[in-house]
Amino acid sequence: MTAVKRPWEMQFWLEDSPGRTLHSKLLNQLTRDIKGGRLASGSLLPGTRTLAKQQGMNRKTVQLVYEELEAQGWLVTRRGSGTYVSETLPEQALSKLHETLVNSTSKTKSVSKIVEGLYQNALGSTNQLPIANDGTPDSRLIPYALLARTYRRVCTGLNQHSDLGYGDPRGTRELRDSVNRMLKDDRFMTCSINQVCILRGSQMGIYLASRVLDPSKGAIVMEELCYLPAKAAFGSNGFRVLHCKVDSHGLDTDCLQEILASHDVAAVYVTPHHQYPTTVCMPMDRRLALLELSKSFEFAILEDDYDHEFHYVTNPIPPLASLPNSENVVHIGSMSKVFAPGLRLGYMAADEAFIERVAQEIVIIDRQGNTLTELVLSDLMSSGEVKRHIRKTRREYEARRNFAASEFARVFGQKVSFSLPTGGMAIWVDISKMVNGRSLKNLNNTDSTLSTLYSSEQTSPTHLRFGFGALNEREISRSIEKLSNILQ
């Protein structure tokens, strides 16, 4: 084993350790730290001279303690390398009673199956295991050199002005101003800088919006085929979730009106630009009808404007937040897909009082965002680099969409059908002819997700969502051919 240098000097507190002598106190404390996990298997211990000096004791005392723990199987000494915690520790079995006493999870709230599934999926991505690609961007398109240059330039400026202290929980003024200008110029929205809050991605915005809203005022309505992380956020904040019908034009406002007639509703969560997961765009008449209902029944509209930048046919319809009667709209967007999900930057635009309540929640859980990254993105937006990058990647994603559509036609022929999406990074494919009522549990294809995942009502899948954004043409062909073999 190669020894790993420690960035910090390991400290030991012996005052509370049982024992009358320094020898017994050190022996008991080291054993306690190993059992408790503070000293993990394979950890390098301080040298005897270093530890003796730190604790103000004789070096011989430390040597005797190490030798005794090595004899018991807790430590192992490697000549010329040092003393390590043993990879194989002595038996530490606990009785069922003691396991219950030390198991802290018995004191925590249980989580829903949705949350557990999302968590396991997130762990899969960190371990480089296959996870569902339902429309994620291609990290190979990230302009790493541009990001590096901008970070370096911003860091130099921060060094000169010593500007990395605590700041506004709503985000840096520079980025809020840049986002505000984008919303005005590109999204037709009229708002002030005080109506903008910077977030760690759109999911944080969804969670905070439902955190600020009051579950006693009513349920949250979602589309019947919906974005599961949003549903999990609403449930975790105490909301009952009702589902509204979705058709080829997105959320069915006639169905919503029926729900409003029989239920108290605090908010409606909607993805009008590219309905998730079906990718359809909500037309203007429905948008206006939804806004009128919001005014009449006094509910908030949580507008998740994901993938707005990637629209391939004509100009996108203006977001709900830019239209008449939009006073109750909370507009949530993200810059994560524009550059990289790992940057974790999103935003929320709403009335000033709502933004202030959100900022109060941020103070409790986060204090503020990442000042450095926010200043970098503001610099990129102000210089026009963000817009240039969007134009470049939009052309690439449009080409991939077109190629994926042609490959589905080549491989499946008339066995499947779909409408070419006007934007986004996924295609919603009707596979009902091939499935014919069969219950499929797993496609074993990380680029395709069955419609049953997005609904609690479907038992047999009728569609699948194919993510093409993260794949080049060769990968698209291979994935669709593999999908054909599975379905047939």
Short description:
The protein is built from 16 helices and 15 strands. It is an alpha/beta fold and 488 residues long.
In total, how many domains does the architecture comprise? 3
pLDDT below 50 for ≥5 consecutive residues: which ranges?
Answer: 126-131
Tell me the number of helical segments per DSSP (H or I, 4 or more residues long): 16
Biggest sheet: strands side by side, in what order? Answer: 3-11-10-9-8-4-5
Q: Give the CATH topology of the largest domain.
A: Aspartate Aminotransferase, domain 2
Main beta sheet, described? 7 strands, mixed
Form type: globular
Characterization of the model:
The chain is an alpha/beta fold. It has 3 domains: 1-108, Arc Repressor Mutant, subunit A (Orthogonal Bundle), CATH 1.10.10.10; 141-386, Aspartate Aminotransferase, domain 2, CATH 3.40.640; 389-487, Alpha-Beta Complex (Aspartate Aminotransferase, domain 1), CATH 3.90.1150. 43% of the residues lie in helices and 12% in strands. Strands 3-11-10-9-8-4-5 form a 7-stranded mixed β-sheet, sandwiched between helices. The protein is globular. Mean pLDDT is 87; it is low at 126-131.
How is the topology of this model organized?
Blueprint: H1 22-36, H2 48-55, H3 59-72, E1 75-78, E2 82-85, H4 96-102, H5 113-126, H6 144-161, H7 173-187, E3 196-199, H8 202-212, E4 219-223, H9 228-236, E5 241-244, E6 246-247, E7 250-251, H10 253-262, E8 265-270, H11 284-297, E9 300-304, E10 329-334, E11 346-349, H12 352-365, H13 371-382, H14 385-412, E12 417-418, E13 426-430, H15 432-435, E14 448-450, E15 463-467, H16 473-487
Helix pairs in contact: 1-3, 2-3, 6-13, 7-13, 8-9, 8-12, 14-16
